[in-house]
Fold this protein.
Amino acid sequence: MNPWLGALVVVLALALSTGGGWLTTRLVLRAARRSPDASREGERAATDALRGGTWIGLLERLATTAALLVDEPAVVTAIVAVKGLGRFPELKENPAASERFVVGTLASLLWAAGVGYLGRWLLTR
């Protein structure tokens, strides 16, 4: 593959992973609400407990996609471990935050993995 084309694939994959993953994760979290009438107060408490989640998610997707683009999927386990350990105190105290964390993390990682593997496939063609 032409090096410039390879670089373009990498840049586009990283951009799609971070930006598109943000939208995907928000939509999944909205769909995962317990009910349309669910307590806004409880949801707000969960969101407040997980401050910085948007930035953490962006970095998580960037790192996950980058790891898969360079064919190092084992790095994803370290990303998940660091994220879980870093959030453990908030998750232990707030069950609603814990559920939001799991759903958001899975949506984010699935998106990043899909983009990362697609990018890797394009790079190796």
